[in-house]
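F.,

This is the one I mentioned.
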């Protein structure tokens, strides 16, 4: 087992340093089974909103392409991956957990999980939306995405954002599940996972839409005002 622990500022926010750290860790894992978790009361509270508010168009494009690369790399990682959602997993933090094969959280009612991008006025980059559509059950994906709400662990379990909610020792449960998955023949596991998830290639139309519509929407004055307001509420 290769343990990857997010231990960063702003409740393990996904800023450029954290994303680079995670990509480095995925490389160092070298195909070993991964347990991904966070420190404190957060798995990851989402993207680094302060960094987002500071970026110009060029900086934002680099930021979002790095985010795409991180999520796609974890999503396609060939060995078993288990997310121990130790605390809040919001927006990008929730997608990070969704990229993993199995997600376990403690039964803590104050813990919040969900995709609140729409409420912040953020448009999903094409690869991230593809991940969400493939990993959130069809019966709940519109409630999760369009409702832009944050849910407690039990509700997250019903909606398919989690696979297991544990009353006693969530870490032990996560490690047991990872050990079980890791006991299967690695080549067969990797092949089945790849076939189930399919490629995350972006079509020419999606790339054009990203450049012409999605990217500019992340740098408007209105968006930055909403992001700064969200920072104040945090």
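My design for it:
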């Amino acid at each position: 087992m290769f343990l990857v622990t997010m231990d960063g500022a702003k409740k393990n926010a996904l800023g450029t340093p954290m994303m680079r750290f995670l990509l480095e860790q995925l490389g160092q894992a070298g195909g070993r089974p991964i347990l991904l978790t966070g420190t404190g009361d957060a798995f990851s509270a989402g993207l680094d909103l302060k960094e987002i508010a500071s970026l110009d168009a060029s900086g934002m494009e680099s930021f979002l392409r790095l985010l795409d690369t991180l999520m796609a790399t974890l999503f396609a990682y060939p060995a078993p991956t288990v997310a121990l959602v130790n605390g809040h997993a919001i927006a990008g933090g929730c997608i990070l957990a969704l990229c993993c094969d199995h997600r376990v959280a403690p039964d803590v009612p104050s813990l919040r999980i969900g995709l609140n991008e729409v409420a912040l006025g953020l448009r999903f980059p094409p690869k991230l939306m593809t991940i969400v559509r493939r990993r959130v059950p069809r019966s709940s994906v519109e409630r999760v995405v369009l409702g832009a709400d944050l849910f407690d662990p039990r509700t997250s379990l019903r909606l398919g954002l989690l696979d297991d909610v544990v009353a006693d020792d969530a870490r032990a449960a996560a490690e047991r599940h990872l050990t079980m998955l890791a006991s299967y023949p690695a080549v067969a596991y990797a092949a089945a996972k790849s076939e189930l998830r399919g490629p995350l290639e972006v079509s020419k139309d999606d790339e054009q839409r990203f450049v012409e519509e999605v990217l500019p929407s992340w740098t408007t004055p209105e968006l930055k005002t909403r992001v700064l307001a969200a920072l104040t509420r945090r």
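The longest helix spans residues 57-75.

Talk soon.
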